Amino acid sequence: MMGFAGLVSSLVLGFEEPHTPVSVGFGMLVAAAPFGVALHLASTHELTRQEKRLWVSGLLSHKGPTLLSAYFNMADRHRMTHALCNASPIIESKTEA
Description:
It contains six helices and no strands. The protein has helices at 2-13, 20-43, 49-59, 64-71, 74-87, 89-96. The protein is elongated.
């Protein structure tokens, strides 16, 4: 959030043109959390392949900001993984068959 606020203020308050190194720094702060989640999803053995797919599709949906904040806390991540698995029609159709 701090990176986004800094980036916006740099662009708005940068008199004639924004200061490039400051804008790049704040841009990196904005991209750090989503990059960290993507890196963790790619490398973790905590989630199954199907759960990873559900997380990616959830993060790219309208629920993305809520899921992104839940991903950084282990208890919330387990709770949301369970909720994503129970809400998925793919998982439900496999368990019914």
